[in-house]
């Protein structure tokens, strides 16, 4: 990342030097952010796009199709997001294709690390440490079981003239996937700059400049799709389907795409055959920095020139084009995807990550992500709580004066008695329709991660118990409301969480009645609360750094 050239996960990655631009008094890492954004921006060529290959966008909504498998693909910051989606939801995503980016969660939540280890090589990059961190997350239910990655097709592309994300970083991505048994095809044969390589690219191969679409005289899309899907038919015109322009707010946790640094508008290319009911695959295609629709009039150039719609028409492939967008602050001015934890999203690379959950919501709306991809080999699905339907409620010890808690965004979800003398209960919501159809659920449990607290709520009074009530569907409306504090559950005390002072804790297995109460057709809500009101202030907060998860085993 020495000079702005190709598209990065946050902003098109320019160069590391250009990333180190002016510092902002507003944020401790403001200067780094600006530099990274600039670097990412310069990652893509500036020349105009080739003739548009996509039909004009038509306003509409995402509809469900017969999707047999889901894959991800991306460049720069979009490449990092493609890998994050694949690793976090490997039970639903069957493979990935990545241009010009490094291994999963390379940045580890640190912007300096992103700049110095995940774009440049100034700082060491330990693939072994990243592998172990991924395995630890899987053990905690924060990402799907890593066993799912074994045998998955992964296409990696790195150009020899890419000085934004240097070759050793891309090498590390191939190494990372290989450690989990993925089938990696690594193309490092061209002199490409930092870019998405496409026959429709207006830039010459070695350039790193906007629009970061480079023609290297090769068909990288045919190669990557051939690796992901198997043999592919020759491309068509890319105009035989419908390009749907949809509202991304509908899929953003909290209802605002802008709050996540995503655009209001997203796009999906739907071939006529898929619309007519044919079994199709779904590819999530993620642009790089400075390539989003809302970035300074960039528009649909990536959608039109990525050379994916052409293959979509002839190979039964729905292509989803989610859109990141720039912030008006120094957090993400180049509209990169979140691969280092901007806007305070510490879960950005795992279940509960706001952008990840938004994109997965789109995938499910298109008919993917439920039974898509290869099901977990051990018969296990890990579900992250639905953020928009998760929160906490507080009331007097007798349940009177109930109200929705307001500190979720600052501290997490409250449990126990707060300093205000009120008792807190937490409601967490899961889309349990994602449990594979036709399977018998044999076991399930909750995992919660503590972020802070005061006192020991389990010892006030002595022997107090933290219980999980289960509700088939929702306690009231699915959004958290005051009445949830006392609403009747389907099963009371379906599981219990023992005392823990830090880290994560796993509940007891759900009781047989609680297992039977899981809603296989939609939402299941759990209400966590102590059996007895505490005599004094004693509470904990959970769900701040990691979402509550529900792990389900089946046969």
TrEMBL record:
| Residues covered by region (Disordered) | 1-20
What InterPro entries does the record tag this protein with?
Answer: AB_hydrolase_fold, Esterase_phb
Q: Where is the signal peptide?
A: 1-46
Question: Protein name, please?
Answer: Poly(3-hydroxybutyrate) depolymerase
Asked whether the keyword Signal is assigned, the reply is: yes
Q: Which UniProt keywords apply?
A: Hydrolase, Signal
- Enumerate the GO terms in the molecular function aspect: hydrolase activity
Q: What is the scientific name of the source organism?
A: Streptomyces termitum
User: What GO CC terms are in its UniProt record?
Assistant: extracellular region
